[in-house]
């Protein structure tokens, strides 16, 4: 039966060829090869460049230095704020036109008052200049200083609220929003400005940096630097702000101690400055013709001007001696 053997061999060859073709072609037709390639591509891990601790510390230091340089540059630009900014720093809502109108009204009122009193033209001009230019600026600076003092008294408490919120797991923006809602003025208003700016899309660190423009004190600058560096370089925000709150309270205690220790010198300066006018007033009450030579004669007026100049110089020297920057 050679024909049957031949047919069997041919059949077995066909079966082997079909099995081999099935084994080689079926994975391509069924998509198993592509699936395997996709799994390998997904499972493949691209090696990341490993940075040492020294390199990370160096990069962080460079980021902090860049942030500090940017802060210093902004502060140099805002060293001499315009009049509108100073009005806002004083907590007033006046426009420049309203400020000029009030200054002009004070100048006109002072001029009319001195004119009615029969003063000489030079005295009238001096009164107009003082009340038109000097008094409004003095009032503005006084309101600004009083508002900054109130801000410093409340800033440490606001920072403590932020520290507790961050430790509880709240984001920094929500902590600032709590301060803007529950703190005392003017901290509440200043932090509300930060929230309003972040609502408009300004990044948080840029909004915080504008706090120093509205409240140019060292303590506000510390807060701006801490938040800005943390936002750019990272770090433990709660610990950093906790240290900042401690620094703010220590500065407040030091300022109170300096004020207490300098009260004696301030009292001495006040007594020395008030003693000559008081003696002059009582002498005038007793013997007017004796003391009137000081303003009725040329030599008397010259001596009075010299005495006023030296008294003013002495008071300014004592003021400089008892004022401390820390």
What global shape is seen?
elongated
Q: Estimate what percentage of residues fall within beta strands.
A: under 5%
* Series of H and E elements: HHHHHHHHHHHHHHH
Class based on secondary structure composition and strand pairing: mainly alpha
| Annotation, overall tally of beta strands | 0
Describe the structure.
With 326 residues, the protein is mainly α. The chain has a domain at 262-326. The protein is 84% helix and 0% strand. The chain has 15 helices and no strands. It has helices spanning 2-30, 32-43, 53-77, 83-89, 96-116, 121-167, 172-182, 187-199, 204-209, 211-214, 218-233, 237-286, 288-291, 293-296, 298-322. Helix 3 (53-77) packs antiparallel against helix 11 and helix 7 (172-182) crosses helix 8. The chain is elongated and about 160 Å long.
Short key terms for the protein model shown above:
mainly alpha, 326 residues, elongated, single chain
Give a quick summary of the entry.
By secondary structure, the chain is mainly alpha-helical.
Write the SSE topology.
Layout: H1 2-30, H2 32-43, H3 53-77, H4 83-89, H5 96-116, H6 121-167, H7 172-182, H8 187-199, H9 204-209, H10 211-214, H11 218-233, H12 237-286, H13 288-291, H14 293-296, H15 298-322
Helix pairs in contact: 3-11, 5-6, 6-7, 6-12, 7-8, 11-12, 12-15
């Amino acid at each position: 039966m050679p024909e049957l053997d031949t047919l069997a061999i041919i059949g077995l060859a066909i079966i082997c060829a079909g099995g081999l073709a099935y084994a080689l072609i079926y994975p391509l037709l069924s998509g198993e090869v592509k699936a395997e390639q996709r799994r390998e591509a997904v499972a493949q891990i691209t090696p990341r460049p490993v940075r040492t601790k020294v390199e990370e510390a160096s990069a962080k230091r460079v980021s902090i230095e860049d942030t500090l340089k940017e802060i210093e540059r902004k502060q140099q630009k805002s060293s001499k704020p315009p009049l509108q900014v100073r009005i806002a720093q004083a907590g007033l809502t006046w426009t420049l036109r309203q400020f000029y109108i009030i200054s002009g009204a004070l100048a006109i009122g002072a001029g009319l008052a001195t004119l009615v009193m029969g003063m000489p033209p030079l005295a009238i001009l001096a009164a107009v200049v003082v009340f038109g230019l000097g008094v409004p600026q003095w009032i503005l600076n006084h309101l600004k200083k009083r508002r900054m003092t109130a801000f410093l008294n409340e800033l440490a408490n606001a920072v403590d609220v932020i520290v507790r919120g961050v430790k509880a797991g709240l984001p920094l923006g929500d902590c600032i929003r709590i301060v803007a809602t529950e703190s005392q003025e003017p901290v509440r208003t200043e932090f509300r400005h930060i929230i309003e700016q972040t609502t408009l899309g300004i990044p948080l660190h840029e909004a915080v940096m504008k706090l120093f423009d509205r409240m140019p004190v060292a303590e506000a600058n510390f807060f701006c630097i801490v938040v800005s560096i943390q936002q750019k370089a990272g770090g433990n925000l709660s610990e950093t702000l906790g240290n900042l709150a401690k620094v703010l309270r220590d500065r407040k205690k030091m300022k109170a101690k300096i004020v207490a220790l300098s009260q004696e010198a301030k009292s001495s300066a006040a007594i020395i400055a008030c003693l000559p006018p008081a003696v002059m007033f009582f002498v005038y009450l007793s013997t007017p013709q004796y003391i009137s030579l000081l303003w009725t004669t040329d030599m008397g007026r010259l001596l009075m001007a010299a005495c006023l100049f030296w008294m003013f110089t002495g008071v300014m020297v004592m003021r400089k001696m008892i004022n401390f920057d820390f």
